C-alpha cells in the first residue's frame, strides 16, 4: 500500500494556451521517463515524463480535457485547443 504524501500547496500545471489547467494535492510517486512506443507517439518525442497520482487526487481547474484512446486499455488526455499532451489514464 502506498502512502500518498499530501502537499501543503498543490502542484499545478496546464497546457500551452491556458485553456486547460489542473492541480494535484499529493506528491507523485515513482516519477520516471517512459520510452515505450506509445509514449513516444503521444508526445512526439523520445520519451514521456510520467508523474503517477491517483485519479481522485487529480483535479481539472479550468477547461476540459480531450481524450484519445491510444489502445484498448489506455487513453491520453490533451488540450483540444492547442494539442498539448497532458495526462495518461
Ligand atoms: Zn491548450
Ligand atoms: Zn509509456
Would you kindly provide a written description of the structure presented here, covering whatever features stand out?
- The chain has one helix spanning 37-43, and strands at residues 6-14, 21-26, 32-34, 48-50, 58-62, 66-68, 76-78, 85-88.
- It is mainly β.
- It has a domain at 6-64.
- It has 1 helix and 8 strands.
- A hairpin with a 6-residue loop joins strand 1 (6-14) and strand 2 (21-26).
- It is globular.
- One zinc ion (ZN) binds at residues 15-17, 19-20, 79, 81-82, 84.
- One zinc ion (ZN) binds at residues 34, 36, 38-39, 48.
Protein topology:
Layout: E1 6-14, E2 21-26, E3 32-34, H1 37-43, E4 48-50, E5 58-62, E6 66-68, E7 76-78, E8 85-88
Antiparallel strand pairs: 1-2, 2-5, 3-4, 6-7, 7-8
Bound molecules: zinc ion (2 copies).
The site of one zinc ion has 5 residues, from helix 1.
Task: Kindly summarize this structure in a few lines.
With 89 residues, this protein is mainly beta.
**Mean pLDDT, nearest integer?**
95
Order of strands, main sheet, comes to 1-2-5
Q: Figure out the total of helices.
A: 1
Measured by DSSP, the beta-strand proportion falls in 35-45%
The gross shape turns out to be globular
Q: SSE string, helix = H, strand = E?
A: EEEHEEEEE
Low-confidence stretches: none
Q: Any ligands, ions or cofactors bound here, and which?
A: zinc ion
Major sheet details: 3 strands, antiparallel
From the structure above, extract its key features.
3-stranded antiparallel beta sheet, 89 residues, binds zinc ion, 8% helix, mainly beta, 40% strand
Amino acid at each position: 500500500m502506498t502512502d500518498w504524501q499530501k502537499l501543503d500547496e498543490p502542484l499545478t500545471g496546464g497546457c500551452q494556451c491556458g485553456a486547460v489547467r489542473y492541480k494535484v494535492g499529493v506528491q507523485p510517486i515513482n516519477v520516471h521517463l517512459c520510452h515505450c512506443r506509445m509514449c513516444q507517439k503521444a508526445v512526439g518525442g523520445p520519451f514521456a515524463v510520467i508523474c503517477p497520482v491517483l485519479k481522485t487526487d487529480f483535479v481539472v481547474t479550468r477547461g476540459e480535457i480531450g481524450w484519445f484512446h491510444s489502445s484498448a486499455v489506455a487513453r491520453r488526455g490533451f488540450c483540444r485547443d492547442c494539442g498539448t499532451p497532458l495526462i495518461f489514464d
